[in-house]
Amino acid sequence: MFHNSIRAALLAAAVASMTYGIYRGEVPEVLLKAINLCLECIGIG
Amino acid sequence: MVDLKRKLVQLISAVTLNSYAGGFVQGTIYRGPLKQVCVPVLNCYSCPGAVTSCPIGSLQALASGVAFNFSFYVAGIIAMSGVLGGRFSCGWLCPFGLIQDLLYRIPFIKFCLPLWTRYVKYLVAGLFVLVLPAFALDAFGLGTPYFCKWLCPAGTLEAAIPLALLEPGIRGALGALFAWRLTWLFLILLFCLAVRRAFCRVFCPLGAILSLFNHISFFTISRNEQICRHCGQCNEVCYLGPAPAPVVNHPECIRCLKCVKSCPAGALSWNFQGRNKEEGVFYG
Fold it and tell me: B218 — contact with chain A (CB < 8 Å)?
């Protein structure tokens, strides 16, 4: 039972972290990077 | 049977995550809204077929930009995946994991790595994914995604090679960095022929982060001490063996469940949230 409380708390922290990231506008940055060719990934950058 | 089931899930995952067929025809990448979503597997977002984002690439991209030094959004997704399943996504969903699994089936000299090599991936995650992209900046305050640039074989295999073949413009721009990337990819693939999941074990930063959750995730493997015969069969079949016996939920465990299926005494079982899938026994 103790373990499950820790798990639940960690899951809540993960969701909170994700929500905070969405709130401060990280998602458009992720999208912007992902829809443009990653030059470093290809070996040009 | 469990291995066949896993292969099928891995294949479905690889095809689904790279289902933008038009990219492979036109030599372009998918630019739709699904790219906002990071799926916790190593699958390059510049692969012509990729429909979602790579969490490791996104972590570095945001850290190396001017707006943020760290991505709480991506970290939250990775942590959520870790808390729910530990390294489950490594074993069942990762397309680059599937490539490594298939390579290891090819007859070649096989050997085991010394156990200390597993710690290299934590250095890679810390240095190349978190620290250098955020703090090694150029004159304009911009960083570089060091892991993507120097160490990611998935990017070369899934993005660089297909795009170079499909797009003359890209082909013409390739230089010394691409030559390094090809050499590195060749070495990694060779390494994977000889060592099972060599890249996962030694270099994968996503595996390193997810491994931190293996002991505490909702999805766990339990061993019933009362019926365990200590025969060592679980270690014999362990995917990332030799594991230090008799540890279940070891950080290297990718939840392939071979140990569960091979246990002659039936002492091992997988469970979610402490609840045994077959008997409903609570292990806590």
Answer: yes
Domain boundaries, chain B: 2-211, 219-276
Average pLDDT, chain A: 92
Number of CB pairs, chain A paired with chain B, less than 8 A apart: 162
Domain range list for chain A: 2-42
Which residues of chain A neighbour B132 with C-beta distances below 8 Å?
none
**Complete edge-to-edge strand list for the sheet that includes strand B268-272:** B219-223, B268-272, B275-276
Amino acid at B13: S
Task: Tell me what pLDDT residue B242 has.
Answer: 55
pLDDT tens track for B52-61:
999 999 999 9
Query: B115 and chain A: CB distance < 8 Å anywhere?
Result: no
For residue A21, give the nearest of B35, B73, B83 by CB distance.
Answer: B73
Sign of the dihedral through C-alpha B192, B210, B256, B160: negative
| Upper half-sphere CA count for residue B14 (Cβ side, 13 Å) | 19
Instruction: Please identify every stretch of chain B with a pLDDT value under 70, giving residue numbers as ranges.
Output: 1, 240-246, 274-284
Do A45 and B155 lie within an 8 Å CB cutoff? Answer: no
Query: What DSSP letter does each residue of B16-68 carry, written as one string?
Result: HHT--HHHHHHT----SGGGGPBPSS---TTSTT--SB-HHHHHHHHHHSSS-
Q: Tens digit of pLDDT for each residue in B207-235?
A: 999 999 998 999 999 888 899 998 888 88
Helix (H, G, I), strand (E, B) or coil at B219: strand
Hey, how many other C-beta atoms are within 10 angstroms of the C-beta on B18? Answer: 21
Give this complex's ipTM. Answer: 0.94
Task: Judge contact between B86 and B217, C-beta under 8 A.
Answer: yes
Write out A4-15 in H/E/C secondary structure.
HHHHHHHHHHHH
Computed on alpha carbons and rounded to an integer, the radius of gyration of chain A in Å comes to 17
Asked: is B219-276 a CATH 3.30.70.20 domain? The reply is: yes
Residue with tokens 């808390």: B83
Report yes or no: B160 at the A interface, CB cutoff 8 Å. Answer: yes
